[in-house]
Fold these 2 entries.
Entry 1:
Amino acid sequence: TCGGSGAMGGSASLIPRDLLGEYQELTFLSKQEILLAYKRFSELLPKEERENACSTRVPKSQILTLPELRANPFQHRICHVFSTSETRDDSMSFEDFLDMLSVFSDSATSDVKSHYAFRIFDFDDDGTLDRKDLEQLVNCLTGQGEESRLSSAEMEQLIQNILDESDIDKDGTINLSEFQHVVSRSPDFARCAAHQRVA
Amino acid sequence: DGNDDNEEGSAVENEETAKGTDKGRKKAEPRTRRAHARGRDRHGDEEDEDDEDGTRRTGHRRHRSRRRGRAGGNEAGDSDMEPAKARKNQANQKSKEDDEEEEDEKGGKGGKGKNEKKGDKKSDKKGKKEKANKKKKDKKKSGSGSDSESEEEPITEEELAKLKEEVEEKKKLIATLRNKPWKMKKKLSVLKEAQLFVEKFEGALGKGKGKKFYAYKVMMTKKWMKFQRDFENFKTACIPWEMKIKEIESHFGSSVASYFIFLRWMYGINMILFGLTFGLVMVPEALMGKPYGSLPRKTVPRAEEATAMNFATLWDFSGLAQYSVLFYGYYNNQRTIGWLKFRMPLSYFLVGVGSIGYSFMVVTRTMAKNANDDGGGDDTSFNFSWKMFTSWDYLIGNPETADNKFASITTSFKEAIVEEQESRKEENIHLTRFLRVLANFLALCTLAGSGYLIFFVVRRSQQFALEGLENYGWWERNEVNTVMSLLGMFCPTLFDVISSLENYHPRIALRWQLGRIFALFLGNLYTFIIALMDEINLKARYLLSFTLEEEKIVKYNMTIWEASLYNGTIPENSTAPPIQVDPADVPRGPCWETMVGQEFVRLVVSDMMTTYITILIGDFLRAVFVRFFNYCWCWDLEYGFPSYSEFDISGNVLGLIFNQGMIWMGSFYAPCLPAINVFRLHTSMYLQCWAVMCCNVPQERVFKASRSNNFYMAMLLFILFLSTLPAVYTIVSIPPSFDCGPFSGKTRMFEVISETLEHDFPSWFGKVFGYASNPGLILPFILLMVLSLYYLNATSKSYKEANLELKKKLQSVRIEN
């Protein structure tokens, strides 16, 4: 638990030192980044709840007001994957928030990134990327407007090409190891970093 | 070894351990296949696992202590297992328990990542069976009657080693915890457990001999890790401009931000170069060398004294600025200066060579790192998948940029599909080919024209210099620099217009554009150098043919002139005259190095001015115009003709690279160049950050930053190589001026090395060096390097082919299955 000192001065005093040390141990973030994340997180809460930021959950609508998530086509999936809420309402606690920042940070390994990327892209949460998942993925990427969407023939062709490239065992779906095999060779993936603007 | 009380899974484990594989978890394949098949079952079992976890955890401590207790005790209970195996089994099981907790978060995701080696083992859902198994074992062990609680029994060497191994495993687990894709809660609990275990048993390990030393070692390791972590934090905090760049990333995406990251990296390199030249060349001369006015070469000549302090002269880097530590000519050729016996000429030479060497090392290291990240460069095999999975730029936080990104992704999808679908039907291939040839011809003409113009202008400026610059106005003085900057500004636009003839795919057109601009800058720079060198060579040839003569003449003139002060006889040896002659009046010899240095400094300064003015006019004024005149204009300025400008990444990066090339070329003759460049980059950063946020809009067509990175690095390396050629040439083959600089009086600049070897090193060193620089030794060395290059190239090719073969085999095996 976070010792809530009455004063708002110095966010360092709001996370106890040993917990801060553990967070540094368990995430790819540095101490300053964790403290900044704490500040940003507590700003998402209404004033009364800010002292207990460590243990409160922020509802999904609030999280999505962060600029990088707002512009992101996978915003809902990201919240869903990182949330540990028992009520499945995709609300995030501070630790979930740290998890998310850690995975997206520059220093995270490509293994952990690809693991989470797979879960984000798996729209139906069944452990594999099948055609429906890929279709939804393409629709997310091409934006909301009707004119920017692909026609169904183009969609078919695209998905077929992707499966030809990535589906090694030819079972019609992409599983985690195939996904990791494909994505780890990409030069862009390692740099897929979102330094969430925590200042 | 069949063990009755062990179930099937553990039996396999025991076999593995029996075979002596320490880390038995390497045998992952059988488990994954089973895991795969059980993927569906996992959901059902999940909830049960959660319940079991809790009880199991409490059971752990008891379990462990019991096991420890029988460490020295008799193993009669497990008579069917050998002691070593028993302990290994225990170790395996223990870590198995810890890792099993991961399953409740992993859910039903099929398959595991590569680093989940331990996890793979746990993935077979024998959880319940294993738990039952353990309970049985417990009972058996406790039933075996060994005194479970005795910690006081002496621990044998073997057990000590075992324990150590377990502690090491725990430590490794702690270190790699952040790599595991678990939820924070779970990571925290695993961490706490592992830490408790390590704390508890590290003490135990220390028993016996060397306890104090072990404890000390442990404490030092902890302190070292804490120090490392703090140092990492400190280093991250020291990185300048991080927030500015993040803001730009969020607004424009990663490709624009990559320019600023490149700028920051260049700034770092220039800081190091600045440190070298400032600390080892400029400061020692200023502090310990003879002061201004004591020597002829350090004083402004009487003729120029009147204008020496004018701002116009200073801006032109003549007058007082020329006769200072900023330029080559000021330095004295004394072998050692000051009470420190600082070897000035040697330091000057080594700093020059060292800067070049450092730059090479840094650029090559960055290229190698980028090549590593590229991961082998399998460009075409995953085209679509990469477009799908990795095209989104997670740094974008601005809705307009996001919209542009969406549009760009859609276009790239459609293009890729079309390219894949139909073969290229070249409509009217002949016309296209003709137009492309025409375009290339026009581009070549432009390049040749600009080269000739520069040559012409440089020649003219030499003439002006000969006739005395005072007769001419501002334009004639700065003709060369202005012309070069203007060419650099307008020719790329010309290339843009030419490229519209060619009708290429935008990415290919961009490459052609970059190539042409590169050729333009390179051509300009080299023409400039050649023109300068021509002039220097003329002077040098003149000097060479008359050198000794001229030296004698000048020296004779000097002595005559000194003698005229005596009103008497001409002294044979010019010993220290009793009359102090003002150095300002002494006639001077020519000093081409300072002249070259001055040219470069002027070029850099004018380039800097041009860039800033272009930004202010081209971006800022244009944005102001579009914004405020839109109300009273006939057509929509924002969507129509001028509109807001986009940030030109490639143009700016090329400008930066060529600026750096000029610095590398000129810093041997003007030690102040790195300092000027540091100042320039510093102000550039702020000005361009402001300009980009204030006046630019996000680009419509977005290209990836990553793949270009190594392309720019390769250009930088090429420029570095080309920039150092002129300096090396002058060091090796042109004699230094006899009247100025740290190498005056020598026939070649590099003689300072042999001089140092003679005077400052023991004689055998000189001999060794002499042998080493024998061509008979150097040629075989070069041959050896060429051979090793060839060998490494061949090896890397064979690895790539082997890679392809394995991939094909993988596919065919799967198909067969």
Entry 2:
Amino acid sequence: MATLARLQARSTFVAHQYYYRNSVVDVFRKKEYDAAVKIQSWFRGCQVRAYIRYLHRIATVIQKWWRGYSGREEYRLLVKFASCAMKMNFYNAMAVRIQRRWRGYRIRKYCFNYFYLKEYLRAVSETNDAIREALEEFAEMKEREEKKADLEREEKERDYQARKMHYLLSTKQIPGIYNSPFRKDPDPWELRLQKAKPLTSQRSKVKDKHWVSPNSWLECTSARSFPRSEVLPPIDRKQCQGPFRDITEVLEQRYKPLEPTLRVAEPINELNVAREEFRRQEWMRNVNDNMFLPFSTYHKNKKYTPLMHSSSKYGPNSYGSRHFRDENPKKWICDKDFQTVLPSFDLFSKYGKLYSKAGQII
Amino acid sequence: MHSFTKDQSPWIPNGPAGVMSLLRPLLLDVVPTIQQTAALALGRLANYNDDLAEAVVKGDILPQLVYSLAEQNRFYKKAAAFVLRAVGKHSPQLAQAIVDCGALDTLVICLEDFDPGVKEAAAWALGYIARHNAELSQAVVDAGAVPLLVLCIQEPEIALKRIAASALSDISKHSPELAQTVVDAGAIAHLAQMILNPDSKLKRQVLSALSQIAKHSVDLAEMVVEAEIFPVVLTCLKDKDEYVKKNASTLIREIAKHTPELSQLIVNAGGVAAVIDCIGSCKGNIRLPGIMMLGYVAAHSENLAMAVIISKGVPQLSVCLSEEPEDHIKAAAAWALGQIGRHTPEHARAVAVTNTLPVLLSLYMSTESSEDLQVKSKKAIKNILQKCTYLPALEPFLYDAPPNILKHVVGQFSKVLPHDSKARRLFVTSGGLKKVQEIKAEPGSLLQEYINSINNCYPEEIVRYYSPGYSDTLLQRVDSYQPLTN
């Protein structure tokens, strides 16, 4: 029991010692165990790594080989395409050359001739220049003609003026207006006046007066038949000295319109005109213009023109008027001559020989 | 009394019916001179005013006139034809009233009279009646007036020729059938001979008649040309009288507008140069037919447009465009320039060198121009710009053009710049690139594509340099730069 008590008193201590001694060993055990594990694991690791390295090497070799192969395949494809493309480009370039030439040729030959167009435009511009010149000349000619006409007109007017003012010419005694003694030489009008012929009043306007019938009142009272002066007399004119009539009365009388008498109202040869008219109407209806002459005395001196049928160069043909028998005796039926069946009329044996003149042409 | 009414024609009557009832019995007077004076008075009254003319018609005077026209002497015929003319000239209804009372037959009989004065009065009346519309013209033609008018043209009196030519012109202007009737009567040969006559009023009428005939169809125009009017017509373009020039250029225009062959004929005869000189020597409305003629010739084909260009037509047209005050003449000039410049780059260049494009642009933009002018100048600008490769002329457009035109301008730049290095340099130095960068365009629109293609012609730093706000970005970089501290 004592041991038991002693043991029981030492149990905890023993327990602690037991535990302590086991655990000390355990500490080391763990350490040693860990160390052994570490060493082993390192070694296994080395093994495995070597194996993996080996595997890597082999895999790399395979992959290297495979990549080279596929790359070369790609490269071959690339080269093929590149060479195809190069060829196509070359062909295209050559085809373009050919097409270019062909297109140029076609356009030049069939569609559009550039040189012809240039030629045409040049010709057009030349024509234009020619037309412009011609038109300029034409306009200039017209101008010149107009100027000439103007000058001539002015010249004529001045001449006319000079003729009208002829009385202003200077005489030996009296110098005229244009020949003032204070001038060095006379005015050009003076020379003109010298050259001009004096104007006679009748020469100024000669118009042919066509005959107007007094029927047309409008024309009769025109200026042609009763010429009036252009200028009216001045308003504040002094009364002329002398026993003159009132001016209005005079003008009234002077410009009284024509009141033709009945005799004058008709033209003087009206009867002849009417006869002519009638004759014309008759003439229209005639077939033959020769007058019909009824009596033989009108034809007395006319020579008879025989028919062409019965006349020849040597005189009239006797067959048909003198004898009626055929010329050729072989055609005769019998020898004897024809006998006139009817004797001639006794009535006409005394024709023209009797006393009475009845029925005779006188 | 009659001389009183004759002299007092400007006097406005207070009762036209009253006057008519006074004059009407005088028409039936025994004395022939009273009849003539009454007719003359009626004519002068009707001539003055269309109310009076209506009163003449309503007063039933016309049948009496027509009836006695057939049998009276030549003075009465002249006076009666004068009345008919005076009534017929105011309106189509009055002219129809004259036709309805059977005056046409008697007028045609008057055309056969011996006295040239009667013929002149009758032809004048017929001309005024036929002037209004096609039905009246047809009525005149049906009465058989046309062969007699052609005979009248051959008479020696100038006044009669004038009136007959004017009557033929009035008849043939309405429709091709009427013109064909006139041609069938053999009018063209006589009219063509009379072009050489020195009288300018006659030439006016003759040229007007020929142009009215030629305007309807190609066949009629060819018949007029076959009468060998070229190159004689070109001398009429140098005439002193303005209206002769105008009618001559109208005739050439009517011939040129039908087919390219006819235009070619005119160009070959040197007509273009003559017309251009004529345009240069006139002002105002006289120029208008000449300008239109150039437009028509250039519109047919590019060779003809080139012929117009080498005849120095473009400077003349641009002068017209800038100095004419009236809008319709400017519109015609703009149209003609558009027709010339629209064919190829050569043509567009020829138009652009004369500095007309800015003028056209200003006309399009100005608010004072009429609508017609704006539309025509816009079309002309568009047509020319689509072919223009002459960059110095396009550059001003970058600055003041509205967006719809700017698109075309930038498009042209984008076509030319990729191929021409000198042009690129010039574009940069003149500030064009800067301006292009400043243009705002919607992404994806045509304008943006053009701008992109222009930007692609230049290295990037240049484009960035010229883009707006570049100086700001540079300054920002300066701000954000940390210098290296060693």
